[in-house]
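Risk register update: the risk of archive-format incompatibility is retired. Evidence:
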Amino acid sequence: LATKDAITPLKIVGLAAVVNIIGDYLLCVKPLQWGCAGAAAATAFATLFSSIFMLRSLKRKNLLPSIKRLPTKSEWSDLLEYTGPLLAITITRLLGFLSMQRTAMKLGVTALASYQLCINALSFFLLFGEPLSQLSQTKLPAMIRNNKNNDDDNKDNTTKLLRETLKSIFTLALITALSVGVLPYLFLTYGSHFFSTDLAVQHITRTTAPSVFLAVFTAILTVTIDGAMLASRDFGFILTNGITSFLLQTQILLPRCRSLNAIFGTFTFRLGSYALIASLRSFVLKKGKLGKLLKLPKKDNGKAPELN
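Archived output:
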């Protein structure tokens, strides 16, 4: 993706999905009938398969470095500066989903069955927001570097380009969030009977559909904003904000939930509060690494440079 080649990963991921399906059949149906273990083995093999082909593609493009020595201390530091906060954020997100599951279990078997339908729909449609995050992480870093390295005369143009790019990405994110968010709502409202014959499960699923729509809508916008924050490498803020919203969700809100709507509402609150604080800080107050880059020079008296 960093080389702006989206076709090769798409082909490899598609091929890996086919391998996964074939593996599921061979290991779970016949000739082997390993059940859940077979499904896990098929997924693991498909993941390994895709990773090998990704490495092969990098090697063909002369982008795969040869490992002749151990990384230096500074190289480890640069790597951990990026991966450390991401690992911590990933762990908090997984724990957040786990806490939601535990809360749903306390509501009974019927509510838990409905929760499984809703969370699967949420997880699937959240994938549509990931390309927007990757778009920010692909397009913005070069602009940010140019903004930092340019002299004052050229910073007007780079700041203007950065603003216009962010505007385009966020407009696309808003359209995507609205259009994609409707799909899980329709699926849960009119399609739950395809997955459960229990009328009580169907009823709870239908009543939870609006909350899932709002969760997907908020998540796609938040993922897009998070991609811009990652591109600016504002890891301290990302980590602090992410952990704070995680603690609010798991320690204060979830223990008080008595319905699936409330459980998914905590998810929406968590992501929405992160997005709101990040937006206010960077785009309104012009604070933080990204916000400072979006500031116009004082000589312009706060007016945006005119487009030629």
